[in-house]
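Let's practice the habit of predicting before peeking. Look at the sequence and jot down your guess about where helices and strands might fall. Then scroll down.
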Amino acid sequence: MSDAVYTEIARAYAKAAQVAPGLKARFDKAGFDPSKVSSLADLSRLPVMKKEELLTLQRANPPFGGFLVADPKEVSRIYVSPGPIFEPSLPGVGGHGLDLLFRSAGITNADIILNTWAYHLVPAGLLFDEAAQVVGATVIPGGTGNRELQAQIIRETGVTSICASTAFFLALADTVIETYGREAWTVKSAFLGGEMGDWMAKRRRIESDYGVKTWAAYATADLGLVGYEDGGEGYLVHPDRIVQICDPESGTPLADGETGEIVVTARQADWPMIRFGTGDSAYALESEADGRVTRLSAIQGRVGAAVKVREIFIYPRAIEEVVIAVSGAIAAQAVVTRENDRDTVRLHLVLDHGTDKGTTTKAAADAFQRTARIRADKVEFIDQLPEDAELIVDRRDM
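Done guessing? Here is the structure:
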């Protein structure tokens, strides 16, 4: 991204601060002059704003915390995220760009998409709907629930694609097949919501068991689409998003391959999310020379779910990768303790009956070290883990 682009962004945010008191207060508190920004390094001097900070500001000055730059009459919808946090829907702002995901997946006007994401309060349902129509697809606005009815819809309309959570997709697929037979299953692609646990392993099983290709995007209600799958590794970053991976404590940008918080700046300043911390963690797969991330890894987990061990943050994704990488592994958990003034990591592994423990021990240790960048002190085999078991357990204070 050229210096001229950063100068353009700086002008937009300097102008925005003149009409958005919340944004101006943020700049003043940090001693930050947006008009002097000419590079990503200049932009990075502004401290990261966390979701919790936005929530506090909105409670003090509802509904938008003094951050809305556009005329309130231009707000077509107000979305509500847990908190609640309010996000305005504005022309050219928000989740526009999800059509890039559909184009990557080859969706055309020949497709019929069953969209099961919610159409109320949260933006997912409407944004998927609008993006699908941009590429010419026919959309059935199913929303959530009504599994038997939606299964009937799939059979009778010849649905070719489904937008859904992983769990609801599985429920729908099984209902169609059990009720009407495998021949009634016409779905060829699925746009799934990310989940913790063994989500990538679930996707691989879905593709094998149901004959579909799965796709996903990374988006937030505050920013809309941030990145999308394009057939390559991880997520290709939306061209109108400036993405950095930052230390979750200091906000300092990190080098490629280092896991940290996803921090995003929207180029359009009508809803001025600048250096906004998403609370999600990932690492950069590809970056420009100035450090702007162009391709993100899979989401590693929430920043708050990370556990710092020997100065390295371990994220839930590292445990998920062990299950994916190790043949015969059913579940895994990392347990962190403090022994002899040293942080210790034990990797607990649940295996299918008959799996060879000898080869599995090394494979699990290697997979964990490759993803977490820290060595497990011991791999232990256990009979089972609860379904809702945390992927990382910190017992250093126990």
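How did you do? The first strand starts at residue 77 and ends at 81.
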